[in-house]
Amino acid sequence: MTSGRVVGYDEKGNPITEDWLKSQIQPSKLEQQKVDSVEASKSMSELIGKVTGSERINKEFFAYLDGKYSGVVRAPDGMDIYQNPQNYSAEQKVARYIDLLKVKSQFEAYRDARQQENTGNSKTILNEPEVLKDIQQGMETLLEDPAVSGLLASEYLQGTREILEGKRFQDDEAQYDQAYTDAVEKLRTDINAQFKADILDGGIFNGGAARGANELSILTNYNSALKAFGSVLGAAEIEKHQDVINNSYNEFYTSKIEPLLPDSSSSYTSMLLASIQNLNVPEALKLNMGMMTPIIDGKTHVDLGLDLKTSGLADKLAGIKMNPETLAELRALGVSANLAQDGLTATFLPSVIQMANSVFGAGEAEKTKRAQFTETVLQELRPLIGRLDTGMTAMDLNGALERVRLSLKMRNNPMAAYANEVTTALNGLVRGANLTGNHLMMGTYGAGTGYDLAKTQALMSLGVGYEGRGLSAGNDPQGSLRDTGTDNSALAKKIFGTEGRQWEAGLIKRYGIATLEPLSSKMADDIQAILPNSTVQKPIIDGVAHGRKAIDNIVETYATAVAKGLYGQDAEGVKQFSTNMVRMMYNMWGMNKPGGSMQKLFATATQLAQSGGYTFKGSISVEEQQKALAKMGTMFISGTRTIHGSVMLGQGSTPEGIASHVLTAAATSGHLMDFVSSKMSPAFKGSRPLSDKAILLSAGLVADHAKEVARVGLAKGGSMMGGLVDIAWLPVDIFTFVQGLKAGRLDTAEKIFHGIIIGTDIGVAVDGAISLTRALVPAAILKASRFATLFMGTSGAIMASLGAAFNLVNAMALVGLAIWQNFKTEQAFDRAGDRLDENLLKYTNNTTNDYLQEFPFAPIWSGKKGEEEAWQKHLDSMYKHDITPFDWAAVRDANRKRFEAAA
């Protein structure tokens, strides 16, 4: 358990590491699947294709889009928005995309007008290839940005819904003729037909399976498609079919997804790990979690600047009596009877024993060496402690330790080969005694009782451990003895157990955390007094305990909510039932194995509820209590399984955020439970129906409150449940979505994507109305969003559909520039060219007025062949090189790498 970063200790005091916790989490087969971006975007891409497939509708949509973004503050002129898209908002990038569409149509209209014969103003635009290339490359570069394609996809869905509802966005009423009405109705019919085929008839599930797609890709496709259909069709249409939607989803989820989820024990461990990793404490504390001694200015040890001088330490220790337990321990070691059996020996014995175990191990074969080491160290320590009362310099101590080392070798002592180990141990013991005697023991003397031996031993072990860590870090050159070829700081790491928190583990096994924590706190206060200008932080001795406490709070909150839903105002009933439910849920956590289904879990929970002594006589019958325990316990455990991978991925999750998602997942799993239990024979025959509604309502209110707490906390802290994007979270997503539609809470496309659950599912905690894009576009969100690849580059079919949509729009019709055809004078053309050049320069760094040449019209008598030759001459005269070269390929390649790295 000691490889990797220590985060706490087990019940026996052994250190637990982050890596060990991770090793206890069974990998989810679902999480190991790779999303096929083509399959995952199939339905939504087809839908986008439908809503972008009509030029008449696209003209209307462009008017909607142009009006909506007219007030957006534009990005600075120039090419930086293409080169550094991360520095601009999604709205700014879409606004530039709209401006490029306009300038493209403006340029094409200007070009066509310049090519008209008999105006006297006909010109070839020599840099036309470059201008068109730069406009097109600019649009495609922006569209490859998931922020842009995501936002445009969202706008298309929202705009389409408003168009279907009869809203109009173009100024020209002549556009709204019968052909336009027919186009709208055809679009409505096509969308409804696809909705029926994909969602109601199970086409996404059945078709995906038939194509050999994995479950992760199928569910991603289904999740994005359902929300897209909801945003276009509206709440009323979805509500009509909610039972079909629920049942088809339940069937697929319980039969195909649940067997791929991890066991519930792994879910608990993942929550524990996430809670530990995301404790709201300074980073220095996280890095030094599991330590027993204070952290000073972010480091584990600093020179306290203390003189090596105590006041009557030897006398204080002599006044302590060796208790029977310590005497028995001393005799069991096998040391000689010559070793003094007094308070000084008793006080230092636990520290020296721990050093002996570190040097020689705890095996029986090394018992003699451990005894010899312990005896030698304690004998040599006694005169050094006496000298502390008269005072020593660091050089004095260094010299005294060197004489001990040489003496051991000259006397052919059994410890001669371990002279460096002995003197390194003495170095830490003397310095620890100095710290303890001067500060840690202050205030611990009890009149009439003296110094308590166990507390003194613990304080001394803390002091020695602290100073030993300093020697291990090489922070005291004068105290770091060196023999030829031996690095004493490396030796100190072994003796003082600084690797893997072995020193701390030894103390915990001997004294327990409850005894050590107040002493560690006192040590931090004492050191703060010594170093008033430094920041002294009390360590997190056991992060595992903190994590378990966070989970306890979640479980207790849920159990209380269920109890209140069951017992109402019966306070005693609420108290007893919630206590029983907490106990039962903890027993259930280890019962679900990999591949287990909710049916199996429910059956196990039913047996446990009926036989585990979790009920009592009161206002609710025993059978009803058992039913509630089985169902609600299954819901909760199922909820933790559902978010297993999500919590594991979370990098900014807070305990409140985790609580929010666990509670909401548990409450929403009631839909799955209803589906499962309806397929099983009643387990509780003869009992009247339990009011699940009251219980679920109470649990739901608790979940809502937790969501609100998480939302506020996340907003204030600037963090988010960035990892809550695992597809196994989908039951909550789907059911919350359909529930919200039925309740009338999701009346607009914006509101459909409102709420902490749907928001965090794709990586963002929301605070106010959002749309699909706002859950997709921020760079921080993209790092975790499973949807990012659907909008990215050529692999994102959605992006391709969007690009094709705008290519359908006739440039002249887009912004009504047909009037340019009526320009008759060079002056009018020049003014139009100036306006065009102003925009081209802003968006593509190009101009045209300096690159004009007489258009080569063919003589009237030359016929068709002459016209073809003139047109070819026109084409040949255009520049084959760029006047203002810009490396679009490099820019797009760099951007793709940036987006892919983020996703």
Could you describe the 3D structure shown?
Keywords: Membrane, Transmembrane, Transmembrane helix. The chain crosses the membrane at residues 797-820. The longest helix has 26 residues, at 692-717. Helix 7 packs parallel to helix 43 (888-902), helix 19 crosses helix 21 and helix 26 (543-567) runs antiparallel to helix 33 (692-717). This protein has 903 residues and is mainly alpha-helical. The model is unreliable at 646-652, 681-690, 710-729, 746-797 and 812-819 (pLDDT under 50). It has a two-stranded antiparallel sheet with strand order 1-2. A two-stranded antiparallel ribbon has the order 3-6. It contains 43 helices and six strands. Among the domains are: 40-169 and 798-877, no CATH class; 296-539, no CATH class. A hairpin with a 5-residue loop joins strand 1 and strand 2. The chain is elongated, with a radius of gyration of 37 Å.
Task: Please provide a brief summary of the model.
The protein is mostly helical and 903 residues long. The protein has 43 helices and 6 strands.
Mean pLDDT: 80
The strands making up the biggest β-sheet line up spatially as: 1-2
Question: Percent helix among the residues?
Answer: 55-70%
Principal-axes geometry comes out as elongated
Number of helices: 43
- What is the distance, rounded to the nearest whole angstrom, between the alpha carbons of the first and last residues? 33 Å
Which stretches are poorly predicted, pLDDT < 50 over at least 5 residues?
646-652, 681-690, 710-729, 746-797, 812-819
Q: What Rg is obtained from the alpha carbons, in whole angstroms?
A: 37 Å
Content-based structural category? mainly alpha
- How much of the sequence lies in strands comes to under 5%
Total DSSP E strands? 6
**Biggest β-sheet description:** 2 strands, antiparallel
